[in-house]
Amino acid sequence: MTQEIHNCIIIGSGPAGYTAAIYAARASMKPLLFTGKEPGGQLMITNDVENYPGYPDGIMGPEMMADFRKQAERFGTDIKMEMIESVSFDGDVHTVVSETGDEYKSHSVIISTGASAKWLGLESETRLMNQGVSACAVCDGFFFRGKDVIVVGGGDTAAEEATFLTKMCSHVHLLVRRDEMRASKIMQERVLNNDKLTVHWNSSTLEVLGETEVEGARIKNTVTGEESTIASSAFFVAIGHKPNTGMFKDYLKMDDHGYLITHPDSTHTDIGGVYVCGDAQDSKYRQAVTAAGTGCMAALDAERYLTEQGII
Length: 312
Ligand code: NDP
What we know:
By secondary structure, the chain is α/β, with parallel strands linked by helices. Helices cover 24% and strands 27% of the residues.
């Protein structure tokens, strides 16, 4: 029996993947979407989402992703709760292999595998997740307006998030583990010249404090060994993200951090029929709404490709 060749396989089920599925399904591409091991992506570990247009009263992250999924299914997306473990983009027809070992073939593949925030790995950090511990200041900063907050990290993300938080919080404590920041000069200057922001150099976090919500952090000076506590209502971890792109390394171009590189103003890769959207290709904006936007672009790019090839 010859194996079915799908029109469009989508890998990943965050806002990018589901939006690609909605557009692809409505364009009669009969997409097959693999959810991966965290169906719904990063929004599944988010409480209130207040910045996604169309939800004037806000919505819980998991509820929003259930809506995305329902909308994708309504137009005929076939959704499989499986993880894709490897791909082969060698010929005109592309192959993806799931965790069960099953192979699926498709004329086009949309990669929306997202990125995962890096965490410190403390028990208290996990316990207080969404109770003041967050990896997204743009998403959650608003909940802590008028309060003191902590940001951990010394790169551009930490500098940007700390600066952003000073616009709404009463004071921001930035914990930098060395005696210098990795962030670009201009971002560092913004941090150092902001009197609503205190940098704690050589500081590592021993524990996030609080029983049911964040009350502060116990930190250690890595040079003197001295321990101290800082009171705060939130603890933002901004030590980088890791794009989930390892399985594409033999086929697609990536930057030094593993983000897949797409052609300017499109979701095209160097391989015909393979498109990337969402956080797997975006280290800069990383918002649900921007991911959804590029998901739409990927489906349109795939649809045009299939039409040009005479496949649909
Ligand atoms: P980076 O990898 O650049 O920086 C991570 C920071 O977190 C470093 O300061 C690192 O410290 C610190 N860190 C790592 N692990 C720990 C830990 N366990 N405890 C405490 N601190 C830790 O990640 P970013 O997310 O900041 O940036 C990623 C890329 O995105 C960069 O290329 C950046 O330039 C870019 N970016 C650009 C922006 C812009 O242009 N507007 C905005 C945001 C990001 P150490 O230095 O000691 O390793």
